[in-house]
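Hi support team,

I've been running sequence recovery on a batch of backbones for a student project. Most finish fine, but this one hangs at about 90% for roughly twenty minutes before it completes. I'm not sure whether the input is malformed or the queue is just slow. I've pasted the structure tokens below so you can try to reproduce it. Let me know if you need the job ID as well.

Thanks,
M.K.
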């Protein structure tokens, strides 16, 4: 055989091996455990299946067509509260019953290359590829029929806003890069004052949405700030003041880290049973379709939940360098697993949402839906039963409250995000793909 043929044969073998290796790395990882086994207070934590190229399985967006709506659990009914919005993500109820909705999206992302292209592609498929409206809109249901007659622009001049909280005569808004405030008077339908910066928040990278709630002590606010990456792969220096819940003193414009190691905390609420802070958190990607579970947990001052080095209370993520072995024994285990990759975002307790019956005690969670699990998970509003105690019932699994966001072909008609109670105790759900706010009430109620 000639030298030329040897070279061609060798090149052919190299290409064949390379193609096979790429196919193996890129082949989507399929879940081996039923979702329910990775839920609850004691989920099954299986061996990681580390991926170089992530499983990509995100529901294509089709929107609500021909009068289609989500499906409410037995004994409940659903109707549109407001429609025709622009990517509504977060909700807040004012004391007079008016509802504020943050119409918002990711800020423009810097950088290109393969990572930038993949992120842009995923955002487009998930219905989040457009520019941010950067506004808060006011919705008012004056006649109490469960539909907002008034829809008006309430506040502009914002930068990818998400969380909102009224505190001591000011409305606080969590922009992606700062906590800001404006003066508010009861019944206002428009604020023209320029937002005042309270504290800066580090932005950039992934996990752009920030949330805010009053702490309950009458002096401070809690602000949730997610990480800029999956597992600090761009360096820990890029994660300063990220993956934390901050405690902010607005009068002094000062803050401290309240709790750390939370990859992407989103919804926050005070548990009515004990007054403690709870949050839902999006855990890490590319460990396979069975890991790691997103979670619901109580958070106390000084807690560290392990990110990026550990997940679920001390399981080592071998991908993270440099390692941090001293942290392992202190990494706090979350209180309740919601399942892998469900993208838990919204959170509200049953004192705010009063649907009665089996939904009388517990927490409602808006699950935006997975992008890198096969089969997909989330795409629903779930309920975590608490019983009479301050923690989820041992052995209890999440209960579906609002489903049908995926159609019969697995395409996304909508995706739930923020959840709150309206002034009657019905549940309002922000749907950022369907551009609608849904209202869920007891079937016997108006």
């Amino acid at each position: 055989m000639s030298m030329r043929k040897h070279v061609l044969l060798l090149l052919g073998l190299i290409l064949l091996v390379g193609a096979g290796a790429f196919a193996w790395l890129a082949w989507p990882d399929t879940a081996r455990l039923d979702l329910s086994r990775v839920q609850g207070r004691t989920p099954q934590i299986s061996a990681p299946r580390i991926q170089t190229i992530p499983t990509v399985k995100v529901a294509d967006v089709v929107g609500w067509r021909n009068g289609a709506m989500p499906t409410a659990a037995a004994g409940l009914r659903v109707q549109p509260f407001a429609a025709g919005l622009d990517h509504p993500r977060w909700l807040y109820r004012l004391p007079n019953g008016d509802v504020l909705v943050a119409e918002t999206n990711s800020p423009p992302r810097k950088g290109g290359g393969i990572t930038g292209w993949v992120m842009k592609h995923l955002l487009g498929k998930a219905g989040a590829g457009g520019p941010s409206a950067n506004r808060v809109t006011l919705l008012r249901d004056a006649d109490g029929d469960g539909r907002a007659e008034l829809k008006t622009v309430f506040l502009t001049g914002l930068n990818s806003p998400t969380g909102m909280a009224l505190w001591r005569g000011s409305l606080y808004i969590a922009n992606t890069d700062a906590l800001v405030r404006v003066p508010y008077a009861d019944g206002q339908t428009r604020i023209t004052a320029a937002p005042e910066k309270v504290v800066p928040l580090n932005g950039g990278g992934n996990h752009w949405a920030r949330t805010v709630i009053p702490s309950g002590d009458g002096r401070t606010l809690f602000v949730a700030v997610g990480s800029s990456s999956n597992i600090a792969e761009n360096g820990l220096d890029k994660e300063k003041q990220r993956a934390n819940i901050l405690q902010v003193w607005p009068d002094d414009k000062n803050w401290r880290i309240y709790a750390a190691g939370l990859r992407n905390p989103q919804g926050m609420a005070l548990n009515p049973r004990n007054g403690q802070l709870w949050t839902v958190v999006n855990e890490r990607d590319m460990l396979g379709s069975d890991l790691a579970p997103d979670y619901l947990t109580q958070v106390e001052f000084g807690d560290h939940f392990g990110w990026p080095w550990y997940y679920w209370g001390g399981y080592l993520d071998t991908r993270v360098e440099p390692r941090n072995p001293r942290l392992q024994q202190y990494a706090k285990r979350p209180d309740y697993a919601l399942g892998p990759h469900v993208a838990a975002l919204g959170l509200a307790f049953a004192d705010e949402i009063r649907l009665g019956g089996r939904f009388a005690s517990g927490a409602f969670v808006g699950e935006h839906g997975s992008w890198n699990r096969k089969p997909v998970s989330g795409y629903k509003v779930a309920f975590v039963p608490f019983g009479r105690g301050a923690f989820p019932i041992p052995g209890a699994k999440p209960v579906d409250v609002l489903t049908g966001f995926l159609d019969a072909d697995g395409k996304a008609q909508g995706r739930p995000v923020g959840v709150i109670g309206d002034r009657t105790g019905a549940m309002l759900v922000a749907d950022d793909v369907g551009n609608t706010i849904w209202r869920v009430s007891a079937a016997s109620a108006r």
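--
Follow-up from support: It reproduced on our side and the slowdown came from queue contention, not your input. Confidence is low (pLDDT under 50) at residues 3-26, 112-117. No action needed from you.
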